[in-house]
Design brief:
Strand order of the largest sheet: 2-12-11-7-8-9
Number of strands: 12
Order of helices and strands: HHHEEEEEEEHEHEHEEE
Structural class: alpha/beta
Radius of gyration: 32 Å
Strand content: 15-25%
Distance between the termini: 60 Å
Low-confidence stretches: 1-23
Mean pLDDT: 81
Length: 209
């Protein structure tokens, strides 16, 4: 909370020593007019009525609806990813270090700053994660094959393409790495890529189908 020092005493004295100004009625110098400023709400209402009458309002509503539908049907591709050229496998340690103390509502310490936490100590990655570009037919075929693999379940995650169209086609849920948060965190640079668990680490395989 910031505090402001009180006005210095000598400033008060200076203000008190200044001559007192007296207001004097000089009469009317020229013609006067009332300030005529249209009410903002009235302007907006008038504009909307005009747009409705000319059909502009309906057109803008349709344009907005189309933009929203397009963003859902075909989200922006994740930047920085390429189709796999060479196979690459590596491991990621998901351990992270607390940068501050975690306390409960009463202020009691739950987890101290500097504590190392590995999520895989508490939960397991039950399904492999398959990242792929839905615009590439080979990658789509690879992902579908991975979902049907006897090795176990897999979760399809698009980095580009049309998730809703794929969901309708496959009759199952398809995820999307919106903004590339997962691929960046996992260090994925090529797709398709498969993420699985090995011990307390995550294994990432960038494959070339």
């Amino acid at each position: 909370m910031s505090t402001r020092a009180p006005l210095p005493f000598f400033a008060l004295l200076l203000a008190a020593s200044l001559p007192i100004a007296h207001a004097e009625d000089l009469g009317v110098v020229g013609p006067t007019y009332d300030i005529a400023e249209p009410d903002l709400l009235e302007v907006i209402d008038s504009r909307l009525k005009h747009m409705e009458k000319t059909g502009e309002l309906a057109r803008k509503q349709n344009e907005h609806r189309d933009r929203v539908v397009a963003a859902v049907e075909k989200p922006a591709p994740v930047a920085g990813l390429t189709a796999s050229v060479t196979r690459r496998s590596f491991f990621v340690d998901p351990t992270w270090i607390l940068d501050r103390d975690i306390r409960n509502a009463q202020g009691a310490m739950l987890f101290a700053r500097g504590l190392k936490v590995n999520p895989l100590d508490h939960v397991s990655l039950r399904e492999r994660l398959v990242f792929f570009d839905g615009r590439d037919r080979r990658q789509v075929a690879f992902a579908r094959q991975a979902l049907a693999s006897p090795e176990g379940g897999a979760k399809p995650i698009l980095v580009a393409g049309e998730p809703l169209a794929l969901m309708r086609s496959w009759k199952r849920r398809v995820y999307y790495d919106q903004g590339g948060s997962l691929t960046r965190r996992l260090g994925i640079r090529q797709v398709p890529a498969v993420v699985s668990q090995e011990g307390k680490r995550l294994r990432i395989d960038e494959v070339h189908p």
